[in-house]
Automatic annotation (TrEMBL):
Organism: Maridesulfovibrio hydrothermalis AM13 = DSM 14728
The UniProt record lists the keyword Plastid: no
Keywords: Transferase
GO molecular function: glycosyltransferase activity
Cited SUPFAM superfamilies: UDP-Glycosyltransferase/glycogen phosphorylase
Residue ranges of domain Glycosyl transferase family in the record: 202-344
Gene3D superfamilies: Glycogen Phosphorylase B
InterPro entries in the record: Glyco_trans_1, Glycosyltransferase_grp1
Keyword Endoplasmic reticulum in annotation: no
Protein name: Glycosyl transferase group 1
Organism domain of life: Bacteria
Amino acid sequence: MQIAFFAPHKPIDHKNLSGDRIIGKSLHDFLCSKGHKVKIVSCMRLRHIMNSPLKWPSLYFEYRKILKRVEDFKPDLWLTYHSYYKSPDLFGPRVAAKFNIPYTIYQGAFATKHRRNYKTWLGYMANKNALIHADYIFANKEIDFHNLSRLITQEKLSRTYPGIKIEEFQFCKKDRTEIRNKLDLQGCTVVISTAMLREDVKAESMTDLIKAFALAVKKAPGARLLIAGDGKARSRLESFARKKAGNKITFLGKIPHEQLHKYFSAADLFAFPGINEALGMVYLEAQSTGLPIVAYSTRGPVEAVVHKKTGLLSPEGDIACLSNNLLELIRNKNLREKLGKAAPTHIKQFFDLQSNLLQVEAQLVNIIRRRQ
Protein backbone atom coordinates (compact mmCIF):
# COMPACT_ATOMS: atom_id res chain seq x y z
CA MET A 1 0.00 0.00 0.00
CA GLN A 2 0.93 3.62 -0.52
CA ILE A 3 -0.56 5.62 2.34
CA ALA A 4 -0.94 9.37 2.75
CA PHE A 5 -0.59 9.91 6.51
CA PHE A 6 -1.66 12.94 8.56
CA ALA A 7 -1.80 13.59 12.32
CA PRO A 8 -3.71 16.87 12.84
CA HIS A 9 -3.52 16.85 16.64
CA LYS A 10 0.23 16.48 17.04
CA PRO A 11 2.92 15.53 14.47
CA ILE A 12 4.40 12.15 15.30
CA ASP A 13 7.88 13.67 15.56
CA HIS A 14 6.77 16.38 17.99
CA LYS A 15 9.42 17.23 20.60
CA ASN A 16 7.07 16.60 23.54
CA LEU A 17 6.61 12.90 24.18
CA SER A 18 3.07 11.87 25.08
CA GLY A 19 0.84 8.84 24.89
CA ASP A 20 -0.93 10.36 21.92
CA ARG A 21 2.33 10.85 20.03
CA ILE A 22 3.49 7.33 20.90
CA ILE A 23 0.30 5.77 19.49
CA GLY A 24 0.53 7.79 16.26
CA LYS A 25 4.20 7.04 15.71
CA SER A 26 3.67 3.35 16.49
CA LEU A 27 0.94 3.18 13.84
CA HIS A 28 3.13 4.91 11.26
CA ASP A 29 6.23 2.86 12.04
CA PHE A 30 4.33 -0.43 12.04
CA LEU A 31 2.92 0.17 8.56
CA CYS A 32 6.39 1.10 7.32
CA SER A 33 7.85 -2.06 8.88
CA LYS A 34 5.36 -4.13 6.87
CA GLY A 35 6.74 -2.76 3.63
CA HIS A 36 4.07 -0.15 2.97
CA LYS A 37 5.09 3.26 1.71
CA VAL A 38 3.80 5.82 4.18
CA LYS A 39 4.21 9.51 3.40
CA ILE A 40 3.47 12.21 5.95
CA VAL A 41 1.69 14.68 3.67
CA SER A 42 1.51 17.49 6.23
CA CYS A 43 3.08 18.39 9.56
CA MET A 44 0.71 21.29 10.18
CA ARG A 45 -0.72 21.11 13.69
CA LEU A 46 -4.44 21.85 13.77
CA ARG A 47 -4.90 21.95 17.54
CA HIS A 48 -7.36 24.78 18.37
CA ILE A 49 -7.27 25.89 14.72
CA MET A 50 -11.01 26.60 14.67
CA ASN A 51 -10.55 29.17 17.44
CA SER A 52 -7.59 30.83 15.72
CA PRO A 53 -8.99 32.77 12.72
CA LEU A 54 -5.68 34.54 12.11
CA LYS A 55 -4.27 31.13 11.14
CA TRP A 56 -7.06 30.29 8.70
CA PRO A 57 -5.32 31.76 5.62
CA SER A 58 -2.41 29.38 6.23
CA LEU A 59 -4.82 26.47 5.78
CA TYR A 60 -5.30 27.35 2.12
CA PHE A 61 -1.57 27.49 1.42
CA GLU A 62 -0.99 24.20 3.25
CA TYR A 63 -3.85 22.61 1.31
CA ARG A 64 -2.21 23.56 -1.98
CA LYS A 65 1.07 22.02 -0.83
CA ILE A 66 -0.71 18.82 0.20
CA LEU A 67 -2.36 18.55 -3.21
CA LYS A 68 1.05 18.66 -4.87
CA ARG A 69 2.53 16.09 -2.48
CA VAL A 70 -0.39 13.71 -2.94
CA GLU A 71 -0.36 14.14 -6.72
CA ASP A 72 3.33 13.20 -6.81
CA PHE A 73 3.00 10.34 -4.30
CA LYS A 74 -0.13 8.74 -5.79
CA PRO A 75 -1.37 7.03 -2.59
CA ASP A 76 -3.87 4.18 -2.47
CA LEU A 77 -5.45 5.53 0.70
CA TRP A 78 -5.49 8.49 3.11
CA LEU A 79 -5.04 7.66 6.81
CA THR A 80 -5.61 10.31 9.48
CA TYR A 81 -4.49 9.67 13.02
CA HIS A 82 -6.73 11.24 15.69
CA SER A 83 -9.38 13.67 14.53
CA TYR A 84 -11.56 15.29 17.18
CA TYR A 85 -13.17 18.63 17.96
CA LYS A 86 -9.95 20.33 19.12
CA SER A 87 -7.97 19.12 16.12
CA PRO A 88 -10.38 18.25 13.29
CA ASP A 89 -8.97 16.93 10.04
CA LEU A 90 -9.67 19.77 7.61
CA PHE A 91 -7.61 18.35 4.75
CA GLY A 92 -8.23 14.61 4.47
CA PRO A 93 -11.86 14.47 3.29
CA ARG A 94 -11.37 17.07 0.55
CA VAL A 95 -8.04 15.70 -0.71
CA ALA A 96 -9.21 12.07 -0.67
CA ALA A 97 -12.34 13.00 -2.63
CA LYS A 98 -10.32 14.98 -5.17
CA PHE A 99 -8.05 12.01 -5.87
CA ASN A 100 -10.80 9.40 -5.47
CA ILE A 101 -9.03 7.40 -2.77
CA PRO A 102 -10.47 5.93 0.45
CA TYR A 103 -10.41 8.22 3.48
CA THR A 104 -9.83 6.52 6.84
CA ILE A 105 -9.38 7.65 10.43
CA TYR A 106 -7.57 5.83 13.22
CA GLN A 107 -8.71 7.06 16.64
CA GLY A 108 -11.74 9.01 15.61
CA ALA A 109 -13.67 10.71 18.42
CA PHE A 110 -17.15 12.21 18.64
CA ALA A 111 -19.09 13.83 21.50
CA THR A 112 -22.32 15.76 20.92
CA LYS A 113 -21.84 17.88 24.06
CA HIS A 114 -19.42 20.08 22.11
CA ARG A 115 -22.16 21.27 19.77
CA ARG A 116 -23.81 23.10 22.68
CA ASN A 117 -20.82 25.33 23.46
CA TYR A 118 -20.14 28.26 21.15
CA LYS A 119 -16.40 27.92 21.82
CA THR A 120 -16.32 24.32 20.57
CA TRP A 121 -19.14 24.33 17.99
CA LEU A 122 -16.92 25.08 14.98
CA GLY A 123 -14.46 22.33 15.92
CA TYR A 124 -17.34 19.95 16.58
CA MET A 125 -18.87 20.59 13.14
CA ALA A 126 -15.52 20.34 11.32
CA ASN A 127 -14.74 17.04 13.02
CA LYS A 128 -18.24 15.72 12.32
CA ASN A 129 -17.72 16.54 8.65
CA ALA A 130 -14.50 14.51 8.60
CA LEU A 131 -16.16 11.58 10.35
CA ILE A 132 -19.20 11.34 8.07
CA HIS A 133 -16.98 11.44 4.98
CA ALA A 134 -14.72 8.63 6.21
CA ASP A 135 -14.79 5.30 4.43
CA TYR A 136 -13.72 3.64 7.67
CA ILE A 137 -13.00 4.64 11.28
CA PHE A 138 -11.05 2.78 13.95
CA ALA A 139 -12.12 3.68 17.51
CA ASN A 140 -9.58 2.64 20.12
CA LYS A 141 -11.57 3.71 23.19
CA GLU A 142 -14.91 2.30 24.29
CA ILE A 143 -16.54 5.70 24.79
CA ASP A 144 -15.51 6.78 21.28
CA PHE A 145 -16.85 3.56 19.77
CA HIS A 146 -20.16 4.05 21.58
CA ASN A 147 -20.51 7.69 20.50
CA LEU A 148 -19.43 7.03 16.92
CA SER A 149 -21.96 4.19 16.65
CA ARG A 150 -24.68 6.85 16.72
CA LEU A 151 -23.18 8.58 13.70
CA ILE A 152 -21.35 5.95 11.66
CA THR A 153 -22.84 2.77 10.19
CA GLN A 154 -21.60 -0.54 11.58
CA GLU A 155 -19.79 -1.59 8.41
CA LYS A 156 -17.63 1.53 8.53
CA LEU A 157 -16.61 1.32 12.18
CA SER A 158 -14.66 -1.06 14.38
CA ARG A 159 -13.39 -1.17 17.95
CA THR A 160 -9.67 -1.60 18.11
CA TYR A 161 -7.15 -1.23 20.91
CA PRO A 162 -3.94 0.75 21.23
CA GLY A 163 -0.93 -1.23 22.29
CA ILE A 164 2.67 -1.26 23.37
CA LYS A 165 5.74 -3.18 22.35
CA ILE A 166 5.53 -5.70 25.16
CA GLU A 167 9.13 -6.79 24.76
CA GLU A 168 10.26 -3.27 25.72
CA PHE A 169 8.51 -3.37 29.09
CA GLN A 170 9.60 -6.51 30.87
CA PHE A 171 10.63 -6.91 34.49
CA CYS A 172 14.40 -7.12 34.96
CA LYS A 173 15.85 -8.18 38.31
CA LYS A 174 19.25 -6.67 37.45
CA ASP A 175 17.67 -3.28 36.76
CA ARG A 176 15.68 -3.54 39.98
CA THR A 177 18.80 -4.04 42.06
CA GLU A 178 20.73 -1.32 40.21
CA ILE A 179 18.07 1.38 40.56
CA ARG A 180 17.18 0.51 44.16
CA ASN A 181 20.85 0.69 45.14
CA LYS A 182 21.29 3.94 43.25
CA LEU A 183 18.31 5.58 45.00
CA ASP A 184 18.90 3.91 48.39
CA LEU A 185 15.58 2.07 48.34
CA GLN A 186 16.61 -1.28 49.79
CA GLY A 187 13.99 -2.54 52.21
CA CYS A 188 11.40 -0.01 51.01
CA THR A 189 8.06 -0.64 49.33
CA VAL A 190 8.25 1.61 46.28
CA VAL A 191 5.36 3.34 44.55
CA ILE A 192 6.21 4.89 41.19
CA SER A 193 4.35 7.43 39.12
CA THR A 194 5.14 9.27 35.90
CA ALA A 195 3.56 12.11 33.96
CA MET A 196 4.31 15.38 32.22
CA LEU A 197 4.20 17.82 35.12
CA ARG A 198 2.26 20.58 33.42
CA GLU A 199 -0.27 22.88 35.05
CA ASP A 200 -3.46 21.09 34.05
CA VAL A 201 -5.12 17.79 34.91
CA LYS A 202 -1.67 16.15 35.04
CA ALA A 203 -0.68 18.38 37.98
CA GLU A 204 -4.14 17.88 39.52
CA SER A 205 -3.67 14.13 39.40
CA MET A 206 -0.18 14.35 40.89
CA THR A 207 -1.45 16.63 43.66
CA ASP A 208 -4.12 14.07 44.57
CA LEU A 209 -1.52 11.30 44.54
CA ILE A 210 0.79 13.25 46.86
CA LYS A 211 -2.10 13.88 49.27
CA ALA A 212 -3.10 10.20 49.20
CA PHE A 213 0.47 8.94 49.63
CA ALA A 214 1.08 11.36 52.51
CA LEU A 215 -1.84 9.79 54.36
CA ALA A 216 -0.69 6.25 53.58
CA VAL A 217 2.95 6.74 54.53
CA LYS A 218 1.95 7.79 58.05
CA LYS A 219 0.74 4.19 58.53
CA ALA A 220 3.45 2.61 56.40
CA PRO A 221 6.64 4.61 57.03
CA GLY A 222 8.75 2.21 54.97
CA ALA A 223 7.05 3.27 51.75
CA ARG A 224 8.56 5.62 49.18
CA LEU A 225 7.05 7.43 46.19
CA LEU A 226 9.09 8.07 43.04
CA ILE A 227 7.78 10.62 40.54
CA ALA A 228 9.26 10.65 37.04
CA GLY A 229 8.59 13.60 34.76
CA ASP A 230 9.24 17.28 34.33
CA GLY A 231 7.34 20.45 33.51
CA LYS A 232 6.29 23.86 34.77
CA ALA A 233 4.44 22.40 37.75
CA ARG A 234 7.43 20.45 39.05
CA SER A 235 8.83 23.00 41.51
CA ARG A 236 5.42 23.68 43.00
CA LEU A 237 4.70 19.96 43.33
CA GLU A 238 8.11 19.34 44.94
CA SER A 239 7.40 22.00 47.57
CA PHE A 240 3.96 20.54 48.18
CA ALA A 241 5.42 17.02 48.48
CA ARG A 242 8.04 18.12 51.04
CA LYS A 243 5.34 19.80 53.08
CA LYS A 244 3.10 16.74 53.01
CA ALA A 245 5.54 13.83 53.23
CA GLY A 246 9.03 15.12 53.96
CA ASN A 247 11.73 13.03 52.30
CA LYS A 248 9.42 10.13 51.48
CA ILE A 249 8.80 11.44 47.94
CA THR A 250 11.58 11.70 45.33
CA PHE A 251 11.27 13.57 42.05
CA LEU A 252 13.41 11.86 39.41
CA GLY A 253 13.05 14.44 36.64
CA LYS A 254 12.53 13.44 33.05
CA ILE A 255 13.40 9.79 32.41
CA PRO A 256 14.01 8.79 28.76
CA HIS A 257 11.14 6.63 27.61
CA GLU A 258 13.49 3.79 26.69
CA GLN A 259 14.82 3.78 30.28
CA LEU A 260 11.45 3.85 32.02
CA HIS A 261 11.15 0.06 32.28
CA LYS A 262 14.20 0.02 34.57
CA TYR A 263 12.46 2.24 37.11
CA PHE A 264 9.25 0.22 36.81
CA SER A 265 11.31 -2.89 37.59
CA ALA A 266 12.64 -1.17 40.73
CA ALA A 267 9.11 -0.39 41.98
CA ASP A 268 6.44 -2.50 43.64
CA LEU A 269 3.33 -0.73 42.34
CA PHE A 270 2.36 2.08 39.99
CA ALA A 271 0.00 4.93 40.89
CA PHE A 272 -1.45 7.80 38.91
CA PRO A 273 -5.03 9.00 39.53
CA GLY A 274 -5.71 9.81 35.86
CA ILE A 275 -8.08 12.78 36.05
CA ASN A 276 -9.57 13.24 32.57
CA GLU A 277 -7.07 10.68 31.22
CA ALA A 278 -8.03 9.41 27.77
CA LEU A 279 -6.21 6.10 28.22
CA GLY A 280 -2.71 6.55 29.59
CA MET A 281 -0.03 4.46 27.94
CA VAL A 282 1.87 4.39 31.24
CA TYR A 283 -0.82 2.13 32.71
CA LEU A 284 -0.11 -0.37 29.94
CA GLU A 285 3.66 -0.09 30.27
CA ALA A 286 3.63 -0.45 34.05
CA GLN A 287 1.33 -3.49 33.94
CA SER A 288 3.48 -5.11 31.26
CA THR A 289 6.44 -4.78 33.66
CA GLY A 290 4.44 -6.58 36.34
CA LEU A 291 3.18 -3.68 38.45
CA PRO A 292 -0.32 -3.50 39.94
CA ILE A 293 -2.04 -0.15 39.41
CA VAL A 294 -3.69 2.33 41.77
CA ALA A 295 -5.81 4.96 40.01
CA TYR A 296 -9.20 6.62 39.83
CA SER A 297 -12.06 4.84 38.07
CA THR A 298 -12.12 7.47 35.31
CA ARG A 299 -12.49 6.50 31.66
CA GLY A 300 -8.76 6.16 30.94
CA PRO A 301 -7.78 3.86 33.81
CA VAL A 302 -10.99 1.84 33.42
CA GLU A 303 -10.01 1.10 29.81
CA ALA A 304 -6.54 -0.10 30.83
CA VAL A 305 -6.92 -1.63 34.31
CA VAL A 306 -9.17 -4.42 35.58
CA HIS A 307 -10.34 -3.51 39.07
CA LYS A 308 -9.29 -6.09 41.69
CA LYS A 309 -7.57 -8.16 39.01
CA THR A 310 -4.67 -5.96 37.83
CA GLY A 311 -5.16 -2.97 40.11
CA LEU A 312 -7.37 -1.05 42.51
CA LEU A 313 -9.57 1.81 41.30
CA SER A 314 -11.43 4.44 43.30
CA PRO A 315 -13.94 7.24 42.56
CA GLU A 316 -12.43 10.43 41.17
CA GLY A 317 -11.61 12.93 43.89
CA ASP A 318 -11.91 10.45 46.75
CA ILE A 319 -8.49 10.98 48.33
CA ALA A 320 -9.29 8.74 51.31
CA CYS A 321 -10.19 5.80 49.06
CA LEU A 322 -7.16 6.41 46.84
CA SER A 323 -4.98 6.42 49.94
CA ASN A 324 -6.57 3.24 51.29
CA ASN A 325 -5.87 1.47 47.99
CA LEU A 326 -2.25 2.60 48.12
CA LEU A 327 -1.96 1.41 51.71
CA GLU A 328 -3.61 -1.93 50.88
CA LEU A 329 -1.01 -2.71 48.22
CA ILE A 330 1.90 -1.31 50.23
CA ARG A 331 1.06 -3.52 53.21
CA ASN A 332 -0.34 -6.60 51.47
CA LYS A 333 2.53 -8.21 49.58
CA ASN A 334 0.47 -11.26 48.60
CA LEU A 335 -2.24 -9.12 46.97
CA ARG A 336 0.38 -6.93 45.34
CA GLU A 337 2.09 -9.93 43.80
CA LYS A 338 -1.21 -11.50 42.75
CA LEU A 339 -2.33 -8.38 40.85
CA GLY A 340 1.17 -7.84 39.49
CA LYS A 341 1.27 -11.37 38.12
CA ALA A 342 -2.07 -10.95 36.32
CA ALA A 343 -1.13 -7.58 34.83
CA PRO A 344 1.28 -8.73 32.04
CA THR A 345 -1.20 -11.42 30.93
CA HIS A 346 -3.93 -8.78 30.62
CA ILE A 347 -1.68 -6.52 28.54
CA LYS A 348 -0.60 -9.35 26.26
CA GLN A 349 -4.22 -10.37 25.66
CA PHE A 350 -5.61 -6.92 24.80
CA PHE A 351 -2.78 -4.44 24.25
CA ASP A 352 -0.15 -6.22 22.18
CA LEU A 353 0.76 -3.58 19.58
CA GLN A 354 1.85 -6.07 16.92
CA SER A 355 -1.32 -8.13 17.14
CA ASN A 356 -3.66 -5.13 17.23
CA LEU A 357 -2.07 -3.31 14.32
CA LEU A 358 -2.05 -6.44 12.17
CA GLN A 359 -5.85 -6.25 12.32
CA VAL A 360 -5.77 -2.58 11.30
CA GLU A 361 -3.45 -3.37 8.40
CA ALA A 362 -5.75 -6.14 7.18
CA GLN A 363 -8.75 -3.81 7.26
CA LEU A 364 -6.90 -1.11 5.31
CA VAL A 365 -6.00 -3.66 2.62
CA ASN A 366 -9.65 -4.72 2.40
CA ILE A 367 -10.79 -1.09 2.07
CA ILE A 368 -8.47 -0.54 -0.89
CA ARG A 369 -9.57 -3.79 -2.54
CA ARG A 370 -13.24 -2.86 -2.22
CA ARG A 371 -12.62 0.54 -3.81
CA GLN A 372 -10.76 -1.06 -6.71
